[in-house]
Design goal:
Layout: E1 5-9, H1 19-33, E2 37-41, E3 51-55, H2 61-70, E4 76-79, H3 83-88, H4 93-101, E5 104-107, E6 124-126, E7 144-149, H5 160-166, E8 174-179, H6 187-197, E9 201-205, H7 209-217, E10 221-224, H8 233-241, E11 245-248, H9 251-257, E12 264-265, H10 270-282, H11 284-296, H12 303-317
Parallel strand pairs: 1-2, 1-3, 3-4, 4-5, 5-6, 7-8, 7-10, 8-9, 10-11, 11-12
Helix pairs in contact: 1-12, 2-4, 5-10, 10-11
């Protein structure tokens, strides 16, 4: 098998826990497992490579444009993340231009295909994010822990969970463990205020990834409160860990969990989230049903599946490249 040199360009800096960095690091790992030489970069510095993978159509547009100007016919993969697909694309000329320049475009769940311009869809491929289960960090005794893995930024609606648990009946055992960096101005102060208003909500700040995944694995549920998601790493991580998901009804969750998944609620609706939490506490069969639905989805997030998707994609776009089956 020919060994390729692949540059994976992401706007998220080294050491960041942002979703784009998590995705880029995971993709680089799959490509290395397939036997290729991979350079993970915050852009494209002009180095020669067989393939450029530019993650985020808007933020990585400069890298994609420079690469295409230098190599008019070389393979270029543009990976759509979330805000670029659901927020930027209708208004951003750079986002649309990135898709035009690309040899292939990737989305993180099947519903993402529907948001692409019709002319782009034939070259689009779905790469559902994979995950390994992490060793659980047990929740405090007697607590039903709901894990929220979300940076404090408006698109994540990060305080909806605090508002929801304030609505629960006295004596409820639900507690929210919120892990994520304060990225919006004033967000840290708001989080501390929420903790003084409600002892059921605890913001733990930006934690190492291993710790965050352990907290998730030891929780009774994952909460996804986002206003939009291209494809949530946290949802895949919850599925891998067998943890039920309660999510806003956004494409990034529906595309993985399915439209009939019973743990979905309307965007911005704290009362609906509170009702789901109350039902999960008062009806053990409901939480068990969610757990069974998540368990059935585990093959979808198997790392071997995502790796095979990359093997097939490279086989489509690299001239003369005949990839062997992935290990």
């Amino acid at each position: 098998m020919r060994r390729l040199t692949v540059v994976v360009a992401t706007p998220a800096v080294r050491g960041s826990h942002k979703g784009n960095r998590v995705t880029a690091v995971r993709w680089a790992g799959h490509l290395r497992a397939l036997g290729h030489h991979v350079v993970l970069s915050e852009g494209w510095d002009g180095r020669a490579c067989d393939v450029l993978v530019a993650l985020h159509a808007t933020k990585s547009y400069p890298a994609a444009a420079r690469y295409r100007a230098r190599y008019p016919a070389a393979p270029l993969v543009v990976g759509l993340a979330g805000t670029d697909l659901y927020q930027d694309l209708p208004a951003s000329e750079e986002a649309r231009r990135s898709l035009d320049l690309a040899t292939r475009v990737t989305v993180l769940q099947p519903l993402g295909l529907e948001r692409l311009p019709p002319a782009v869809r034939p070259k689009a491929r779905v790469l559902i994010q994979s995950a390994h289960p992490a060793p659980p960090v047990p929740a405090p005794r007697g607590v039903l822990q709901a894990c929220l893995l979300a940076h404090l930024r408006a698109v994540k609606d990060p305080f909806l969970a605090a508002e929801a648990v304030r609505r629960l009946r006295p004596g409820s055992r639900w507690r929210v463990a919120h892990l994520g960096a304060a990225l919006d101005p004033g967000a840290a102060e708001r989080a501390r205020t929420e903790m003084t208003r409600c002892d059921r909500y605890a913001w733990r700040g930006d934690r190492p990834r291993r710790e965050a995944l352990g907290v998730l694995a030891g929780s009774a549920a994952l909460l996804v409160t986002s206003r939009l998601e291209g494809g949530s790493n946290a949802v895949s991580e919850a599925i891998a860990a067998g943890v039920p998901v309660l999510s806003t009804r956004v494409d990034g969750s529906i595309g993985v969990l399915g439209p009939a998944y019973p743990g979905l609620f309307p965007v911005g609706d704290a009362a609906a989230l509170a009702a789901l939490l109350a039902r999960a506490e008062d009806e053990p069969g409901f939480l068990a049903a969610l757990r069974a639905r998540v368990a059935a989805l585990r093959p979808l997030v198997a790392p071997a599946r995502e790796r095979e998707a990359w093997r097939a994609l490279l086989g489509e776009i690299v001239p003369g490249f005949a990839p062997s089956p992935s290990p």
